[in-house]
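A note on notation is needed here, since sequence and fold are reported together in a single record. The reader may check this reading against the record printed directly beneath this paragraph.
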Amino acid sequence: SVDCSFSRGVCDWTQDADDDFDWNPADRDRGDGYYMAVPAFVGHKKDMGRLTLLLTSLKPKSSYCLIFSYRLAGERVGKLRVFLANKKAAPVWEQNKGKDERWRTGKIEIFQGAETTNSVTFESERGKGKTGEIGVDNVVLISGLCPED
């Protein structure tokens, strides 16, 4: 497995230069490292911020599972979407509100055909709310299918 978490990960993360705002590091409650977040007060409604994970060494014709922690905290905070590079049009995963402020786990299966996925993009779309944040952390890529809960 490949650890792409932000505090000690070995992965190549880039901010999109053509979006409306950047994701920023935020300290974890217990003080053990940080995660990436977009506070609710950044930008205007419908503005987008994209954080891209570059995947360079995925083998063709293999399966991978991308597992990550995410949090949508606050009223009408916005949407979090995940896109795979070779399937640009539609998000492969989307969440638009949390039942509470807790961190949850997202899983995405990545099937490498002849055409390989070379990046995963986390996109935050700003909502109407003025409090809370959208956060992403503990991004890990494992080979094989996603485990059952």
